[in-house]
Amino acid sequence: MSLNKPDLLHQMVTIRAFEEMAEQLYTLGKVHGTMHLSIGMEASAVGAIAALRPDDLILSTHRGHGHCIAKGADLNRMMAEFMGKENGYCRGRGGSMHIADVQGGNLGANGVVGGGIATAMGVGLGLKMQRRGDLAGFWKPARSADRVILCFFGDGAANLGPFHESLNMAAIWKLPVVYVCENNQYAMSFPVKKAFAIERISDRAAAYGIPGVTVDGNDLLAVYEAVSQAVERARAGEGPTLVENVTYRWRGHSKSDANRYRTKEEIEAWKEKCPIRRFRARLIEEGTLAEEEAERIEQEAYAAIEAAVQFAEASPEPTLEAIEEGVYA
Amino acid sequence: MSEAVREITYLEAIREALRQEMQRDERVFIIGEDVGVYGGAFGVTLGLVEEFGEERVIDTPISEYGIAGAITGAALVGMRPVGEIMFMDFTTFAMEQLVNQAAKMRFMFGGTIEVPFVLRTPAGSGTGAAAQHSQSLEAWFVHVPGLKVVAPSTPYDAKGLLLASIRDDNPVIFVEHKLLYKIKGPVPEEPYTIPLSSAEVKREGHDLTIVATSIMVKRSLEAAEQLAREGIEAEVVDPRTLKPLDEETLVRSVTKTGRALIVHEACKTGGYGGELAAVIAGSEAFDYLDAPIVRLAGRDMPIPYNRNLEYHTVPQVEDIVEAARQLARGRI
Predict the structure, then answer these.
(1) In this structure, which of A73, A166, A227, B207 has its CB flanked by the most CB atoms within 10 Å?
(2) A320 domain residue, yes or no
(3) Cα angle at B250 between B247 and B252, to 5 degrees?
(4) What is the pLDDT of residues B108-161, one digit of tens each?
(5) Contacts of B107 in chain A (CB under 8 A)
(6) CATH number at residue A131
(7) Do the two domains B7-186 and B200-328 of this chain adopt the same fold?
(8) Residue A135's pLDDT is what?
């Protein structure tokens, strides 16, 4: 697959712009609840999803704005959902933490840490079954028989029981699942150094007899390469892979986080490793992108977010008459 | 009368529903612990792996959370999984996936997705398996919007309700009872469905209504026969689907009899009987009540091992007879 690198930069900047705006809207009191920002982690979302085909599927996390945008979500509908509006992706029922774009292959963010890991294994089981001859022609329009599911989760989720059950089952049945652990160093306040007695989370792959690889999660192309290999393996029917993207969240866990568990110096040091600045510089250096094109990409991304806010603000509120719709099919 | 319908057991009726639906719909598959060559801990799926192969009758490691994840995820991409959790007690391992994920996805995602699975699981005491293999936990699931909860009491209902559950587009918790597995009853050979949310009057009577679930329907019917010999005619109503509940059938019966005895095996406090009582008390049947609504349920305690203690932990036929007698004779 040939990569459209300027587009990947555009996606990362769009995620950054969305989340900066999200933060601003929260401060202004225009959204309620909480949110989990992935600022500083954009290369993990974009690099991983770049390795997928449009008809592949993802399961996302509570820190999922980046996954949603990288999977191709419409920014207007996404912002409308964020602001709880009727024409948002989930009709305002899900919000930031439970956004899904089913048509686009995003089977949902998740408010529960680790809640999607076993679901992903089930999706993989379903996808594998759909390779069977008798099911091949079942759906109209026909589905590709070699789709894969990519499951994002964090370092915190890797210490939950469901992680074990899911990886084991996906491994024994060689399911087309790609597990992407976004190791952003902290499970809320608890550091990876204290939560794991191993150096790399990907070392756990060995326990399931599957490949495990740790990459610099702030290096978009490194993420892309690692996930591409995992996708290829899954598509070929060889089973799952555990990819660990080592990255860092610049913002707190959620809006209530006072950052008591880490130092300003640590945060600043990671900001020096900004995945967007790094990729931008690389594209300019290798001649893929001119400085002014990069500028234009940034302007476009921020303008699109401004427009999305206008769209969302002008969008209707859900009606009380429909409050219980969707509980049951 | 048409010619007699053949009789098969509750267990065979469930197996027949599984087999017929797997023949009809290639999206349906079975997944659970020891459901393959072993045939399931109680033998429900015996022979199905030979007929449908290991791709459609899937043995799993001991991973109840994983089973719940497997059926949820597969349902999301259009399959029709039927999961089995060996004992209802072990659904505790699977709760997160069932309650936070499967039950809520459709609503959280604005109605854009469906989660059509069935989770079969046997509940109930009477096997000497004691506290961790004997619970009736249906009230937990009834309390979760997005889930449907079905509890058949006869072979006929087991087949028709299971076929309806598999064809339903929602996650359905299908609660079987271990002591009912060997009970025989008439079951048509051809596939048929019983709509979810249709209660049934299992016996007509005019002196009181016994609303019973699962095995308590059988015990209540036996109790009703004894009561009839004393001149008390009990009407026995089986909700069959605990959620959504067919309130109308229930209310109509109590309106007719003026007395309601609710019987279930699960612990009384927080049990489904409280919900049934509230439905009756909050309906037009209230005006027709001649006595307080009575709940007869399992004691608020774990199921003990000792045979005699176990027996006296949950309602038995004689307990139902006594409670009904008191209620019908105006002693309550």
Answers:
(1) A166
(2) no
(3) 105
(4) 999 999 999 999 999 999 999 999 999 999 999 999 999 999 999 999 999 999
(5) 93, 326-327
(6) 3.40.50.970
(7) yes
(8) 86
Residue at token pair 């949902």: A108
Q: Residues B127, B128, B133, B134: what is their CA dihedral angle, to the nearest 10 degrees?
A: 60
Residue A149 domain boundaries: 5-315
Q: Is B7-186 in CATH node 3.90.600.10?
A: no
CA distance A64 to A117: 14
Tell me whether residue B199 is exposed, middle or buried, using C-beta atoms within 10 angstroms of its C-beta: 0 to 12, 13 to 18, 19 or more. buried
Question: So what CATH class is B200-328?
Answer: alpha beta
Task: Tell me the shortest Cα–Cα distance from A148 to chain B, in angstroms.
Answer: 11
Write out pLDDT tens, residues B10-28: 999 999 999 999 999 999 9
CA pair distance A288, B23, nearest whole angstrom:
56
Number of domains in chain A: 1
Cite the DSSP H helix spans in chain A: 5-27, 42-49, 65-70, 75-82, 117-129, 133-136, 161-172, 192-195, 205-208, 220-235, 264-271, 275-285, 291-313
ipTM of the complex: 0.97
Residue B298's φ and ψ, nearest 5 degrees, are: -65, 150
Nearest Cα neighbor of B236 from B281, B279, B199, B274 is B199
In a domain, residue A111? The reply is: yes
Q: Which residues of A touch B26 (CB under 8 A)?
A: 132, 134-135, 138
- Decide if A245 is inside a domain: yes
Based on the residue annotation, tell me whether B133 is a catalytic residue of this protein: yes
**Residue A25's Cα: distance from chain center in Å?**
21
In-domain check, residue A323: no
Mapped onto helix, strand or coil, the DSSP state of residue B190 is coil
* Cβ neighbour number for residue A3 with a 10 Å cutoff: 15
Pick the closest to residue B281 from B256, B257, B246, B255 (CA basis): B255
Q: Name the pLDDT band for B61 (thresholds 50, 70, 90).
A: very high
Which residues of chain B neighbour A98 with C-beta distances below 8 Å? Answer: 108-109
**Number of residues assigned to chain B:** 332
